[in-house]
Specification:
alpha/beta; 218 residues; 8 helices; disordered N terminus; globular
Length: 218
Amino acid sequence: MHRIWPLGALLFALWLGAGVPAQAQNSASAAKPPNTILVVGDSLSAEYGLKRGTGWVPLLEKKLLSEKKTATVINASISGDTTSGGRSRLPALLAQHQPATVVIELGGNDALRGLPLDMTEKNLTAMTQAAKKAGAKVLLVGMQVPPNYGAAYGNGFAGLFPKIAKAEKVALVPFLLKGIADVDDSVSRFQADRIHPNEQSQAGMLANVWPELKKLIP
């Protein structure tokens, strides 16, 4: 649920600390929007091919409730999105939602298209810096590509995520599909296209994200 704040409420906020009674200040504080987690990803986070509510991001909402953490999850993921698309969309998303935490899960489609690694790196770095500048904590979610893309490209792509996370001092999930795509029976964990994890794999994806994400949530 997104709340549109009326002009009067915004003006009222400007008066805080300038002679407004303590009771009014407390009321305004209680009315502030909740802690927001913004997920900017591609089809892996957008429930591609899945029944609504079964993807790892909706499962994250349930996890937050079970952990008694007050937070709102905004899933701004779009199937097929690249880091260029995410970079262009992010400023408006930051302005609209003012998130406390931004989860960046992009890059897989760059690799599938064989896009230059330096372009992907620049886009992810720019997104990370923009989120930090907006006052948000960042969790960068890494991805890997199958070996048929060539060792040089595959290793270079996988190495982008820890490289950026280290340079920008942000949290990192090294591989979103760990325990799903890198196991002997991986075929059974994917949809028929062998690209998108099936419903049974979503809990595993969340399990890969949660240990790092929970450190960023008050």
